[in-house]
Design a protein that fits this description.
Layout lengths: L2 H26 E4 L2 E4 L1 H19 L5 H9 L4 H9 L3 H28 L1
Antiparallel strand pairs: 1-2
């Protein structure tokens, strides 16, 4: 490997590392008192989103403890599950669209802050 190739690879790795840090920083951090700090609100939102995504994609059943708790409060579980399964596709597309716009906005904000500063 020549010195020129090593320099190009090093520069590429550094740029990738820097941009990944900006991306994840935009997801989890916010500016407080002029410094970047982890935003617990953003972390909580991201963890909640991942939990919901896991529930929606990988679990098709309700845990027995939840069913027992609902039955004790005399809530009709089958009708609630039927109503929950009848979410229109347009609402799901709207959810994914809003999540996508929010993510693009965060990335664009991080990139524009870097260009300004």
């Amino acid at each position: 490997m020549t010195d020129e190739t090593k320099a190009i690879v090093t520069k590429t790795v550094e740029a990738t590392r820097h941009n990944l840090w900006k991306f994840f920083g935009a997801i989890f951090m916010s500016e407080k008192n002029g410094q970047q700090a982890v935003s617990y609100h953003k972390v909580l939102g991201f963890v909640l989103f991942l939990c919901c995504l896991w529930t929606w994609m990988f679990t098709g059943t309700v845990p027995p403890e939840v069913i027992e708790a609902l039955e004790e409060t005399e809530i009709d579980v089958p009708s609630i599950l039927k109503v929950a399964s009848d979410v229109p596709d347009s609402m799901l597309y709207t959810l994914w669209g809003l999540l996508g716009l929010n993510g693009v906005n965060k990335i664009a904000t991080a990139v524009s802050k870097t260009k300004e500063g």
